[in-house]
Amino acid sequence: MENIALIESFSEFKDDKLIDRVTLMAILEDVFRNALKKKYGSDDNFDIIINPDKGDMEIWRNRVVVADGEVEDENSEISLSEAQKIEPDFEVGEEVSEEVKLIQLGRRAILALRQNLISKIHEHDNTNLYKQFKDLIGEIYSAEVHHVRPKAVILVDDEGNEMVMPKEKQIPSDFFRKGDTVRGIIENVELKGNKPQIIMSRTSEKFLEKLFEQEIPEVADGLITIKKVVRIPGEKAKVAVDSYDDRIDPVGACVGMKGSRIHGIVRELGNENIDVINYTNNIQLYITRSLSPAKINMIKVDEEAKKASVYLDVEEVSRAIGRGGQNIKLAGMLTGYELDVMRDVADLSVEDDVELKEFKDEIESWVIDEFAKIGLDTARSVLKQDVGDLVRRTDLEEETILDVMRILKEELED
User: Which residues form a coiled coil (predicted)?
Assistant: First the structure.
């Protein structure tokens, strides 16, 4: 009865965990052999026969018959008189096979057997899960929101596997509810104790690259190559693309007519602004393209120091820098060069001008810094701007901007 009950419980594990027959038998035999070692000191002389499909199991102990009084190891030897109780014809030197019932191991040992089995099954599952998701690192994966926590979202896939998307791996505009289907990339699989923790990300550059592969057939087919992706998640991204086929316009193919192809990607990323540019080995041209939409007058490149000075007209400086410095930051990340934006020397000589820092006695330093963030560092560069536009592009109030403009005008008129 004990054998049948235990085997039935093994069958339940097989059905629940979808373990193949060979693996289950190997786990069961390992569990039983550990129990036999604890009970008898060794399992070398035991045969274990398991049929989990039929729910039966047999354990046989093999011992050599020795003369009475000469038994040295009770586990591997049996006295002649004891052997003849099993079968009268046994003689010294023969081998006796005797079935061991589970009940002989003791009820505590049987309970330990079941616990050991559960542990082995979980260990097997965790190992398989770890290997499965290790192979999926860098791939897009979909899962359902199971629980929303302050520092992470817990997701569950169709197989019931749990994964975690930490707050820093979420796009700032992401908002999830229980039951929502979420797409992200499997970024990492970490072992926490014996349990694998699957980390999903929506902020990874690889996620954007994989979205291009999914949405743009030429990328999936290898006709267009993605050379590099840089992102400020949820805000702005730049993607450098190239093609070995001169007949293909890689930028046009990726963007699509009126942005039709890239629109789905932008929407998936919370309306992240995506610039697609043609890759080139010409570093000056590459930097020029990376700073789009600004128009560049001249670039001085120091290849050894990986630095470049970019010269532009005053009105182009703010475009090159971008809101909050995003454009120039991403351009630097894309090209691998430290970029310094400079107002063109020719532009400086057009008319007398005064640097904003000269007004530090009348204008607070943090206000001057706000203008500098958007590339405005002289009096005339500020005065050329529209007040409403400056309110939108800086953290300054209209009253403050008007006051600054008044000070600057008075100085230039004098």
Answer: none
> What pLDDT, on the 0 to 100 scale, is given for residue 4?
45
Of the three residues 177, 201, 225, the one that is the final residue of a domain is 201
The pLDDT score that the predictor gives to residue 349 is 44
Residues 90 and 125 in one domain: yes
- Calpha distance 60→82 (Å, rounded): 16
CA dist., res. 172 & res. 177, Å (int): 15
On the 0-12 / 13-18 / 19+ scale of CB atoms within 10 A, 154 is middle
DSSP, residue by residue, 331-371: HHHHHT-EEEEEE-HHHHTSS---BGGGGTTTS-HHHHHHH
pLDDT over 80 at 128, yes or no: no
Nearest-angstrom CA–CA distance, 88 and 136: 64
Residue 49 pLDDT exceeds 90: no
Q: How confident is the model over 375-409, as pLDDT tens digits?
A: 788 888 888 888 887 887 778 899 999 999 888 88
Strands 46-51 and 95-99: unpaired
CA dist 381 and 64 (Å) reads 103
CATH number, domain containing residue 243: 3.30.300.20
Which band of pLDDT confidence, cut at 50, 70 and 90, is reported for residue 8? Answer: low
* Token pair of 383 as six digits: 């005065």
Q: Name 73's Cβ contacts closer than 8 Å, sequence gap at least 6.
A: none
